[in-house]
Amino acid sequence: MTRTNRPLAVFDLDNTLSDARHRQRFLERRPRDWDAFFAAAPQDPPLAEGVALCREAAEECEVVYLTGRPERCRRDTLDWLAAQDLPEGRVHMRRNDDRRPARHTKLETLRRLAARREIRVLVDDDELVCDAAERAGFRVVRARWADSSPELKKAQEGEGRT
After folding, report:
1. Which of the two residues, 116 and 1, has the higher pLDDT score?
2. In the predicted structure, residue 40 carries a pLDDT above the cut 90
3. How are beta strands 8-11 and 91-94 bridged, if at all?
4. Closest by CA position to 110, among listed 88, 89, 81, 136
5. Residue partners of 95: CB distance under 8 A and separation at least 6
6. Which residues have CB under 8 Å from 131's CB, separation 6+?
7. pLDDT class for 45, splitting at 50, 70, 90?
8. Tell me, which fold does domain 8-159 have in CATH?
């Protein structure tokens, strides 16, 4: 099987591969400090369960990363992935001005990818993203190995930021 016809394994980043708990405090303030939240992402420790699953998936699949992080975080995100020795893969990020909920932006990207390639699995921690993907017929692994604050969940869905 060549790289171009291998199925895709799609991985979220925050609270799936990276532990974002240390920066969730920036979302508990009013107004939320999104710049500080994303600026602290390079210090995220890896989540062993997610990293192991990603490396395992890379044995049979091409890994693709799908995050709600804005495009302006691309360099930090690529550097973090490389520092964790995660499999190389395309990184799909939201436009800087896109504030739609992740369940919409991620499903749109999944459908676009699925039009050209088989998607073997989506691994994500956001329950609403997982629900939407399952309803659309995608196989989902729910990343329940990291704690997410209620503020982060509200921000993800209400403000479309991650």
Report:
1. 116
2. yes
3. unpaired
4. 136
5. 70, 71
6. 103
7. very high
8. Rossmann fold (3.40.50)
